[in-house]
């Protein structure tokens, strides 16, 4: 397949821009993280998710950070509490659902499949 078709070129440009310049991560709108939203992070950012349970309830924080901060040792956790930190470097990877595909990628795959099937 030649890449001279405008649709093919557009798809390649969008995919390369999306992966090279930004990353989307989930963020929590409430301390229990029962309402998620997304945010676009800077070029070298990774997504993170932190769960903290002090025995009185669980607090969940999600967002963007740097890989250097993810590599830091866990803080002191008082007895009876738990602190779990996870970092990942893919689109929307900090959700509870690990195998999630972005809507943009799914749409582009559908368009390419439709285009190829009509050749």
TrEMBL record:
MF terms in GO: transmembrane receptor protein serine/threonine kinase activity
Gene3D superfamilies named among the record's database cross-references: CD59 (2.10.60.10)
Statement: the UniProt record of this protein carries the keyword Signal: yes
Signal peptide: 1-22
Keyword annotations of the record: Membrane, Signal
Subcellular location: Membrane
A cellular component term, taken from the record's GO annotations: membrane
Keyword Signal: yes
Originating organism: Engystomops pustulosus
Domain Activin types I and II receptor as annotated: residue spans: 24-96
Name of the protein in question: Activin types I and II receptor domain-containing protein
């Amino acid at each position: 397949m030649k890449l001279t078709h405008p649709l093919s070129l557009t798809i390649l440009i969008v995919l390369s821009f999306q992966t090279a310049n930004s990353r989307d991560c989930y963020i929590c709108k409430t301390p229990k993280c029962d309402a998620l939203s997304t945010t676009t992070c800077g070029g070298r950012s990774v997504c993170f998710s932190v769960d903290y349970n002090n025995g009185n309830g669980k607090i969940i924080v999600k967002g963007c950070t740097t890989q250097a901060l993810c590599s830091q040792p866990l803080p002191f956790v008082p007895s009876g509490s738990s602190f779990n930190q996870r970092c990942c470097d893919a689109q929307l990877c900090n959700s509870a659902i690990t195998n999630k595909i972005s809507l943009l990628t799914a749409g582009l795959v559908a368009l390419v499949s439709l285009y190829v099937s009509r050749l």
